Amino acid sequence: MKVLNYGSLNVDYTYSVPHIIVGGETMASFELHEYCGGKGLNQSVALAKAGLDVWHAGIIGNDGQMLLDACADAGVHTDFIKKMDVRGGHTVIQVDENGQNSIILYGGTNQMQTADFVDEVLSHFEEGDYLVLQNEVNMLDYIIDKAYERGMKIILNPSPYNEALDACDLSKVSLFLVNEIEAAQITGNNDAEHALDALHETFPNAAFVLTLGSDGAWYYDGKQKVFQDIFKVKAVDTTAAGDTFTGFFVKKLAEGADIQTALRTAAKASSIAVTRVGAAPSIPTMEEVEASLKEG
Ligand code: RIB
Questions:
Q1: Over residues 100-123, mean pLDDT
Q2: How far apart are CA 201 and CA 86, in angstroms?
Q3: Which atom of ligand 1 is found nearest the CA of 42?
Q4: DSSP string of 38-54?
Q5: Do residues 135 and 168 lie in contact, with contact meaning Cβ atoms separated by under 8 Å?
Q6: Ligand 1: which of 5, 8, 12 to mutate, most ligand atoms within 8 Å of CB?
Q7: How many CB atoms lie within 10 A of CB 32?
Q8: Of the residues 33, 79, 193, 196, which has the maximum number of CB atoms within 10 A of its CB?
Q9: Sequential DSSP letters for 225-255
Q10: Taking CB atoms and a 6 Å cutoff, what residues make up the pocket around ligand 1?
C-alpha cells in the first residue's frame, strides 16, 4: 500500500502580532518569519515524520525551492512535485499572543493543476493505495473521481471549505477529518450536538474524525464511536496543528492500530506542534510523540 498526498505547498509569511488585526486598523508586528507550509505540504511532512512512505503531488513556483527541500528533508518522495516559472502559493499569517492565527491564502501554482498532470500522477498508484487531500488545490473534483476509479482509498480534510467542494462527489471519500464548522458546511446541518449523526446520515459509507478544538475529538463510522480528549499545553502557534493530527491519525490507521490509539497519538502529536512556532517546522517525529506519551 502506497500513500499519495495531493495538495498545496505554501511559503508562509508569519507575523507575530499583539492581536489579530481588525478592519481599518494599522498595527506594527513584532516579528516576521518565513516558514514552509500549505496544508498539503504540512500533512505530507506529518505523514513522513509519523513513519509512512508518502509521495507528495503538487506544483511549486519559482519561489518554492525551500518547499521542495523541506519535503525531501522530511523523507517525503518528491517525484510528483512539479515546478513552474511563476509565483507559487503563499500565505500571510498573523499569530497573536495566545498562539491563535488568521491566514490569507494566495493560491499561485497550487491553483494550476491540469487534468494531464493529475492523470500522470495517479497512473503510479493503484487499488488500495491511500490518497490524502485537502482543499487548497484546483481540480479536486477531478482528482477524487479519477482516484476513485482506480480504487484508491480517499481521505479528505475539507479545509478551507469553499464552493469548490460543492463540485466534488464526496460520497467517494472513505474518511473525513473535519472540524465543527466544516461538518455543518458539508452536511448543511448546524446542530453541533448531533454533528456526527448528521455526517453519518449524509455519507453513510464513510468514517469521520470530528475535531472540536479544546473539547477534544470524536471518531464515528456508524458502528464505533470513540472520544479523545486534548493534551493541555501552552500554545505558542496553532498553525498546522490540524495537519499534524491528520498525518499521525492516518499513519496509525494504515498500520492497523485501534481507533483510540490512533486518536491519542494524533492528539499528542498536535499538542506538541502547537508548542512550537511555524507550520511544517513545528511537526514532531513519531519518536518524540511516543516518548511524550510514555511520560504521561
Ligand atoms: O493548516 C495550516 C496551513 O494553512 C498553513 O501552513 C498555510 O500555508 C495554510 O495553507
A1: 97
A2: 43
A3: 6
A4: -HHHHHHHHHHHHT--E
A5: no
A6: 12
A7: 9
A8: 196
A9: EEEEPPPP---S--TTHHHHHHHHHHHHHHT
A10: 8, 10, 12, 37-39, 42, 91, 103, 136, 239-240, 242-243, 279
Q: Which residues pair with 57 in a beta bridge?
A: 6, 80
Cell, residue 90: 503563499
Using a 10 angstrom Cβ sphere, with 0-12 exposed, 13-18 middle and 19 or more buried, the burial of residue 21 is middle
Chain segment 38-48, per-residue pLDDT in tens? 999 999 999 99
What residue's CA is closest to ligand 1, atom 9? 38
State which ligand 1 atom lies nearest to the alpha carbon of 8: 10
Q: What is the DSSP code (8-state) at residue 179? A: E
- The residue contributing the CA closest to ligand 1 atom 2 is 240
pLDDT tens per residue across span 8-26: 999 999 999 999 999 999 9
DSSP state of 283: P
Q: Label the pairing between strands 175-179 and 153-156.
A: parallel
Closest CA to 176 of 242, 128, 89: 242
Q: How far is the CA of 94 from the centre of ligand 1 (A)?
A: 12
pLDDT of residue 189: 87
